[in-house]
Amino acid sequence: MDKLKSDGTGTLGIPERDFYRVSKTAVDMTREVPPIRAVTIAALPQSITIDLNKTALIVIDMQNEFCSPKGWLASAGADVGPARKPIGPIKALSSALRALRVPIIWVNWGLRPDRLNLSPGTLHTFNPTACGAGLCDLMQSDAPEDAPGNYRILQKGSWGAEIVDELSPFPGDVHVDKQRISGFWDTPLDSILRNLAIRTVVFCGINADQCVYSTLIDANFKGYDTVLVEDGVATTSPDYCLQATLYNVRFAFGFTVTSRDFLGVLPSK
Predict the structure, then answer these.
(1) CATH of 33-265, one of 3.90.230.10, 3.40.50.850, 3.30.1490.190, 3.40.50.2000
(2) What is the rounded distance in angstroms from the CA atom of residue 142 to the CA atom of residue 146?
(3) Using one digit for the tens of pLDDT, what is the confidence trace for 191-247?
């Protein structure tokens, strides 16, 4: 609650988004509706017009574990080059939208040390033979002088779970820890979006065909308008997985845009 004004009133909730006006004797539950800030973007399968006052950008899993040459994925022999390609577009788009007061939400793996909310099926996805290093297992470096040291894979607060340095979030950005492929399962993401009065969700991050796609589908099922930034996503899977994802988003779950087209229609302030 804000400090009481001289007339004895105050507010409860998220400023400019969703709040009550209260006093000792009354509660005003009416919400002011901000004027529409519409932008029209070239998109597939059709152009779209969105309201920036009801839009949020969600960036998924741009973490050291997946994007750093010293991370878990690279240590398993994967080429993390594709996972790094969205960094530039995400940085440009998040900076521009942040300046326009569009919420930036970082949704990342951030696991409990005891793994008590991880099912065997989830653990199997990341360690199918139980012989390697999986979720929250110890990541040991063979070259400590050139690596971040020993830590637990994707454990909340670990180096591997941190967002890559190039995308350092700003104070005021929103962070959501997830424990599944989808960012909505067993997280407060839906509640946060609704309290921010969001209707349109723009998606960036990796992997496009896995965590990004699953979260976008869940958003669509929950009634949000969903937009995927084509050059703001990538995958370390074969290219046909990315092409299938783009096709399915356009066909069944929303729209795709490029960061260039999006940035080109944004107002200066």
Answers:
(1) 3.40.50.850
(2) 9
(3) 999 999 999 999 999 999 999 999 999 999 999 999 999 999 999 999 999 999 999
Could you tell me which of 238, 168, 213 has the C-alpha nearest to residue 60? 213
Which positions are catalytic? Answer: 61, 178, 211
Task: Read off the tokens for 232.
Answer: 């703001």
Burial 104-113 (b: 16+ CB within 10 A, else e): bbbbbbbbee
- In angstroms, the CA 126 to CA 181 distance is 11
Burial 134-158 (b: 16+ CB within 10 A, else e): bbbbebeeeeeeebbeebbbbbeeb
Domain locations in the chain as residue ranges? 1-32, 33-265
Q: What's the alpha-carbon Rg for the chain, to the nearest Å? A: 20
